[in-house]
C-alpha cells in the first residue's frame, strides 16, 4: 500500500504523528474531507483521533467568521488526542484562515484557496487590509493553491453548474493532502464511491477532482515539504472507524445481545447527543425500538415504562435534558428498575454552548434529584471506550437493578477513532436477575438478592407474577406503601448500600505511567484521557515522574481508590469544570493533598496546559 | 374470570362516597368481561387520588410521577405489545402537568386505554382549581373565582386527532363497564372521560347532569347503529339542523322518529362526533357512551411491523454482522 519509494520527493519530513486542520465554510464539506482523510489513514495502520469543531448555527452567512467549520485530525503512532495544534492548516477562505491560524504549530504549513482570497472575502472576515497573511502576522509557509479554478477545470465538460462544481472543492484538497501525506488515493476513491453509491454522477465528478488534487500536489512537490508518518503496531483483526456516539449506541446493542433483553430507547433531539438517537433508529435491523418522544421527560419516562415491561430502557440527552429528566430518574431509583441515562455533556449552564465540550454535569449526575437518591455514574474515556462503558452501564443497570448515568461529552461523542470490531465472546454474559424458581411462591416485589441487594425483575408476559411498584416509600419486606419512619430509614439505607456494593463488581482503578519515583498522581475522569495520557508521557520523558489515574467509574469509586490516593504525596485533578471531581474526592478522602487544574472554555484541554499546570503545582 | 380475580389485597383508601370506588368496581368488572388474565394486564397511573388505583388491582401496576403516566405507558406498550395496558389519570394529572403527554399519546395512537377521571378539582393537594374547572370557580387557589376557561377533554382529543372517545359517569356502573370494554377492544389510543364526584372538595360538581331527577333529560346514551334518543320517556331525539344538531320532541312540530339521527361511531370524519361530544346538558344533552371508535394504525403495532420488515430485509443476526457490512479494513 505504501508507495513512498516511488514518489518520495526531495524534502521528506518523518514524524511520529501529524495533525491536519480542515477549516472552511460550514457548507464547504470540511467534515467529509476530514473523515475520509482519517479513514484512509486508519487503513494504513495509523492511530487516529479527530475533533470536529462545528459552529452552532446550521448555515451562518457564507464567508463569515461565525460560519467557519473546523475538523482537526491527528494521525500517526501513539495518537491519543487530535493535537493541541496542527502541522497543516487548510483554509478555504479568509474567515477560515482567521479562525484557524491560531491552531498552527510553529513551522507548520498553511494551504489556502487563493481564489477565495479576494476583497469580498476579506471584508466578510473583517480584515482591514488586503493582505490577511501580513495582517495576522503569519510567518509560516503558505501554499497558495487556486483550488476553485483547478476544481472547475477538472470538471470542465461535465455540464455541472457552478454551484455543484464548487461543492467538490473539498475533494480537491483531500487529493492534495493524500499526496502530501503519502496516503493512497485509491482508498479515498473507494470511500467516495461508497458515500455516493446512489449518485454515480456525483461520484465521477469527485473522483476526477480527487485525481486533479493529487496530481497537482505531485506537480508542485518541489516547493512543499511532504510527510512520512509512523504507524502503530496494531492488533490483527477487522477494523472500522467509529464516532463516540455511534460506539455508545453499539455498546447498548451488545448489552442487549448479552442479556437477552430487548433494547428500547426513548429520546428527544438535543445537541450533541442526537447521533445516538439517529444510530439506534437505524438499528431496527437489529430489533432495537427507538422512539422519538414529545419531550425529554417523555424520553426517560417511556424508557422507564419499557424497563418495567422487561426491556433494557435507555434515554439519551445532554445537560439541559438531564435536568428535565431528574424527577423521573428518581422514580427509577425508587422503583429499582434498570435504566441507562446517557448525558453527552456540553457547555452550560442553561442552553450554554450546545456544540462545545465540558465536564460540568458531574454534580448534576451525582446529586441532581430530590431526596436521598443514589445511583451509579460512569464515564467513557475515548470514542472507542464509549462502546465498553455503554456496555458496562447496561450490565450494571440490569444486574443491580438501578439507573446508571453515562457521562460522555461532545469531544469524545463527536470524535472518532479506529476500532477493532469485537467478537460477542469478548464480552461477558449479563446475568438478568430473574425471580429464582425456588422463591416464586414467597416472592414479593421488593424481595432482594442477598449479595447485591438488587430486587428481582419479574417480567410481564414472561413471569405470571403481577405486582405493583411506584414512587411512594414502601415496606421493607412486603413492598406495600407505608410512611412508617423505621421502614423509610431502612429503605434509604438499602438503596445506598445497593449502590455501594456495585464497587465489588467493577475493575480496580489502574494507574498508567507509574514508577517508583512518582510522587505525583495526575487524576482525570472520562473524556480527557487522551490529553492527560499524552501529557503524562511527555512529563515522564522530560524527567518529571507523574503517574496517571483516569477514572471511568465515578460512583461508586473503584475499591482501591483510597489506597491509591494514599500512595502519592500529591494528587492533581485535571478536569473541564471548576473542580467537581476534585471536590468529590476531597470530601471522601479529606487527608489527601488534592490540587487542581481546571478549564471551562467549552474546549478540550491542550496537552501543554496540563503539562504547565502540573509543573506549576510542583514548583 | 371474575371481578375478584382483578382485586388486590390492599385496603382501598379513598374517602367514603368518592366516585373512584365506583370506577374501580366498573374496571374490575370490565376486565372480567374482557377475559385478559391479570398477568397480561398492566395498569399505569400518575399522581393524584385516582392514580392510587393500580394498588387495588391484582395486575402489573405502576404508580409513577405526576403527569407522566401516558409517557410511561407508551414505552411499556411499545416495548411489550402483548400486554393490555390501562392508563389512569385525573384532570390535573392528565391535562395540566401531563397535557403534553396526553395529546401526543392520542396523536401517536399507541394502543393504551386511557381513563380520565374528571372531578374538576385537585383533591390530593386539598382543593385547588384544575384545568377543567369552570370559569369563575372558587377554590383555595382561586378565592375570587378563576379568570380562565377550562379544557373540554373531548375537544382536546379531537384536536389531537383521536380515534376513540367515550364518556361515562362514575355512578353509571353499567355504562362505565360498557365503554371500558369498548375502549380495550379498540386498537389504538382510547380515551374514556369519567365524570367523577369529589365528596370533599367539589361535591356535586356534576349534579346538573347527574341528579337522578334530571339525568334522563340532560344526558343521551349513544350507541353505534342506534337512533339518538333520550329523555325519561325516550321521546326526544337529535336531528340535523343545517351543519349542527338540535334536540326535538318526537310527535311535536312535525318531527318523527324518521328524522332522528342514527349514531355512527365508526365514520372516519370527526365532524359530527365532535358536535356530539361538545354537548353539555344545557341546550343539548350531554353524550355518554362511545362517541367515536374508528380504526387506524396503532403506533406500537407499526413499530413492531417496521422492525420485523427491516430485520428480514437486512438479515443481520447480530451486531457484528451489521458492523462488518459497513466500511472496514483488515489488519493482519
Q: What quaternary form is this? A: heterodimer
Termini separation of chain A? 49 Å
Helix content of chain A: 25-40%
- Which strand order does the major sheet of chain A show? 11-10-12-13-15-14-20
Number of helices of chain A: 22
If you compute it from the alpha carbons, what radius of gyration of chain B comes out, rounded to the nearest whole angstrom? 22 Å
Describe this protein's structure:
The complex is a heterodimer of chains A (619) and B (332). Chain A has 619 residues and is an alpha/beta fold. Chain A has three domains: 4-229, Pyruvate-ferredoxin oxidoreductase, PFOR, domain III (Pyruvate-ferredoxin Oxidoreductase, domain 3); 254-497, Thiamin diphosphate (ThDP)-binding fold, Pyr/PP domains (Rossmann fold, 3-Layer(aba) Sandwich); 520-618, 3-Layer(aba) Sandwich (Rossmann fold), CATH 3.40.50. Chain A is 37% helix and 21% strand. In chain A, helix 2 (30-43) runs parallel beside helix 8 and helix 13 (296-308) runs parallel beside helix 14. Chain B is built from eleven helices and 14 strands. Chain B has helices at 19-34, 69-79, 91-97, 99-108, 153-159, 173-185, 207-210, 212-218, 271-278, 299-314, 319-324; strands at residues 41-45, 60-63, 84-90, 113-118, 121-122, 128-129, 164-169, 190-195, 219-222, 229-230, 236-241, 244-249, 286-293, 329-331. Chain B has 332 residues and is α/β, with parallel strands linked by helices. The chains are: A alpha/beta (619), B alpha/beta (332). Chains A and B meet through helix 2, strand 9, helix 11, helix 13 and helix 14 of A and strand 1, strand 2, helix 2, helix 4 and helix 10 of B. Strand 9 (237-243) of chain A pairs antiparallel with strand 14 (329-331) of chain B, so a sheet runs across the interface.
Amino acid at each position: 500500500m505504501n508507495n513512498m519509494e516511488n514518489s518520495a520527493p526531495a524534502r521528506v519530513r518523518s514524524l511520529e504523528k501529524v495533525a491536519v486542520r480542515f477549516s472552511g465554510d460550514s457548507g464547504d464539506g470540511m467534515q467529509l474531507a476530514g473523515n475520509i482523510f482519517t479513514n484512509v489513514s486508519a487503513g494504513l495502520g495509523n492511530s487516529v483521533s479527530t475533533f470536529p469543531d462545528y459552529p452552532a448555527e446550521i448555515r451562518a452567512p457564507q464567508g463569515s467568521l461565525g460560519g467557519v467549520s473546523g475538523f482537526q485530525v491527528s494521525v500517526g503512532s501513539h495518537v491519543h488526542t487530535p493535537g493541541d495544534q496542527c502541522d497543516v492548516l487548510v483554509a478555504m477562505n479568509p474567515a477560515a484562515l482567521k479562525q484557524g491560524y491560531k491552531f498552527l504549530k510553529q513551522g507548520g504549513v498553511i494551504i489556502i484557496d487563493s481564489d477565495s482570497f479576494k476583497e469580498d472575502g476579506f471584508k466578510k472576515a473583517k480584515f482591514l487590509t488586503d493582505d490577511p497573511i501580513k495582517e495576522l502576522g503569519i510567518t509560516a509557509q503558505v501554499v497558495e493553491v487556486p483550488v476553485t479554478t483547478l476544481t472547475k477545470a477538472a470538471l470542465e465538460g461535465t455540464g455541472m453548474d457552478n454551484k455543484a462544481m464548487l461543492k467538490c472543492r473539498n475533494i480537491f484538497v483531500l487529493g492534495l493532502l493524500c499526496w502530501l501525506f503519502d496516503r493512497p488515493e485509491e482508498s479515498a476513491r473507494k470511500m467516495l464511491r461508497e458515500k455516493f453509491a446512489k449518485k454515480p454522477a456525483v461520484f465521477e465528478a469527485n473522483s476526477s477532482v480527487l485525481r486533479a488534487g493529487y496530481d497537482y500536489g505531485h506537480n508542485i512537490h518541489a516547493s512543499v515539504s511532504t510527510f512520512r508518518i509512523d504507524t502503530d503496531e496494531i492488533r490483527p483483526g477487522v477494523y472500522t472507524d467509529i464516532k463516540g456516539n455511534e460506539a455508545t449506541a453499539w455498546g447498548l446493542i451488545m448489552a442487549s445481545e448479552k442479556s437477552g433483553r430487548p433494547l428500547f430507547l426513548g429520546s428527544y433531539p438535543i445537541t450533541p447527543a442526537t447521533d445516538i438517537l439517529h444510530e439506534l433508529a437505524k438499528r431496527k435491523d437489529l430489533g432495537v425500538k427507538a422512539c422519538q418522544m414529545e419531550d425529554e421527560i417523555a424520553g426517560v419516562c417511556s424508557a422507564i415504562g419499557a424497563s418495567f415491561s422487561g426491556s433494557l430502557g435507555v434515554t439519551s440527552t445532554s445537560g439541559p435534558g438531564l435536568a428535565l429528566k431528574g424527577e423521573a430518574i428518581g422514580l427509577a431509583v425508587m422503583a429499582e428498575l434498570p435504566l441507562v441515562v446517557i448525558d453527552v455533556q456540553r457547555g452550560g449552564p442553561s442552553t450554554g454552548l450546545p456544540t462545545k465540550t465540558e465536564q460540568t454535569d458531574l454534580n448534576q449526575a451525582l446529586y441532581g434529584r430530590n431526596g436521598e437518591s443514589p445511583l451509579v455514574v460512569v464515564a467513557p474515556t475515548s470514542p472507542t471506550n464509549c462502546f465498553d462503558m455503554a456496555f458496562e452501564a447496561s450490565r450494571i443497570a440490569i444486574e443491580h437493578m438501578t439507573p446508571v448515568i453515562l457521562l460522555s461529552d461532545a469531544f469524545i461523542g463527536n470524535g472518532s477513532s479506529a476500532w477493532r470490531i469485537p467478537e460477542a465472546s469478548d464480552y461477558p454474559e449479563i446475568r438478568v436477575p430473574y425471580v429464582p424458581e425456588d422463591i416464586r411462591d414467597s416472592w414479593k416485589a421488593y424481595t432482594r438478592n442477598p449479595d447485591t441487594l438488587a430486587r428481582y425483575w419479574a417480567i410481564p408476559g414472561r413471569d405470571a407474577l403481577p405486582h405493583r411498584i411506584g414512587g411512594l416509600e414502601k415496606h421493607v419486606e412486603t413492598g406495600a406503601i407505608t410512611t412508617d419512619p423505621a421502614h423509610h430509614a431502612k429503605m434509604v439505607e438499602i438503596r445506598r448500600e445497593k449502590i455501594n456494593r456495585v464497587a465489588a463488581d467493577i475493575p480496580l482503578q489502574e494507574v498508567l505511567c507509574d514508577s517508583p519515583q512518582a510522587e505525583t498522581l495526575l487524576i482525570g475522569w472520562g473524556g480527557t484521557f487522551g490529553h492527560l495520557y499524552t501529557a503524562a508521557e511527555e512529563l515522564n520523558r522530560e524527567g518529571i515522574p507523574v503517574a496517571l489515574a483516569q477514572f471511568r467509574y465515578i460512583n461508586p469509586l473503584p475499591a482501591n481508590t483510597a489506597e491509591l490516593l494514599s500512595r502519592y504525596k500529591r494528587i492533581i485533578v485535571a478536569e473541564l469544570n471548576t473542580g467537581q471531581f476534585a471536590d468529590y474526592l476531597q470530601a471522601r478522602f479529606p487527608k489527601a493533598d488534592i490540587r487542581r487544574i481546571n478549564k471551562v472554555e467549552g474546549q478540550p484541554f491542550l496537552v501543554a496546559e496540563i503539562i504547565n499546570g502540573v509543573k506549576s503545582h510542583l514548583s | 374470570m371474575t371481578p375478584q380475580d382483578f382485586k388486590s389485597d390492599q385496603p382501598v383508601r379513598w374517602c367514603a362516597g368518592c366516585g373512584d370506588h365506583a370506577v374501580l368496581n366498573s374496571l374490575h368488572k370490565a376486565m372480567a368481561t374482557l377475559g385478559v388474565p391479570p398477568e397480561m394486564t398492566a395498569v399505569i397511573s400518575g399522581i393524584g387520588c385516582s392514580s392510587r388505583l393500580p394498588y387495588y388491582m391484582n395486575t402489573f401496576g405502576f404508580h409513577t410521577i405526576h403527569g407522566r403516566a401516558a409517557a410511561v405507558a407508551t414505552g411499556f406498550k411499545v416495548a411489550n405489545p402483548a400486554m393490555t395496558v390501562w392508563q389512569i389519570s385525573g384532570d390535573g394529572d392528565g391535562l395540566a402537568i401531563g397535557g403534553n403527554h396526553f395529546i401526543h399519546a392520542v396523536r401517536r395512537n399507541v394502543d393504551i386505554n386511557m381513563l380520565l377521571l374528571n372531578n374538576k378539582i385537585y383533591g390530593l393537594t386539598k382543593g385547588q382549581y384544575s384545568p377543567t374547572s369552570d370559569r369563575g370557580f372558587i377554590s383555595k387557589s382561586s378565592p375570587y373565582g378563576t379568570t380562565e376557561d377550562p379544557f373540554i377533554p373531548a375537544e382536546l382529543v379531537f384536536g389531537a386527532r383521536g380515534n376513540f372517545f367515550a364518556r361515562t359517569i362514575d355512578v353509571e356502573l353499567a355504562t362505565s363497564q360498557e365503554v371500558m370494554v369498548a375502549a380495550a377492544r379498540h386498537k389504538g389510543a382510547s380515551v374514556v372521560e369519567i365524570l367523577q364526584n369529589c365528596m370533599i372538595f367539589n361535591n356535586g360538581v356534576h349534579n346538573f347532569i347527574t341528579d337522578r331527577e334530571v339525568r334522563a333529560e340532560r344526558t343521551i346514551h349513544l350507541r353505534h347503529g342506534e337512533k339518538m334518543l333520550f329523555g325519561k320517556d325516550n321521546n326526544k331525539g337529535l336531528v340535523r339542523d343545517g351543519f349542527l344538531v338540535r334536540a326535538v320532541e318526537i310527535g311535536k312540530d312535525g318531527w318523527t322518529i324518521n328524522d332522528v339521527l342514527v349514531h355512527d361511531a365508526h365514520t372516519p370524519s370527526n365532524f359530527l362526533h365532535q358536535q356530539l361530544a361538545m354537548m353539555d346538558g344545557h341546550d343539548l344533552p350531554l353524550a355518554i357512551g362511545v362517541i367515536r371508535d374508528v380504526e387506524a394504525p396503532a403506533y406500537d403495532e407499526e413499530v413492531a411491523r417496521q422492525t420485523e420488515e427491516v430485520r428480514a430485509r437486512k438479515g443481520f443476526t447480530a451486531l457484528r454482522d451489521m458492523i462488518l457490512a459497513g466500511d472496514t479494513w483488515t489488519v493482519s
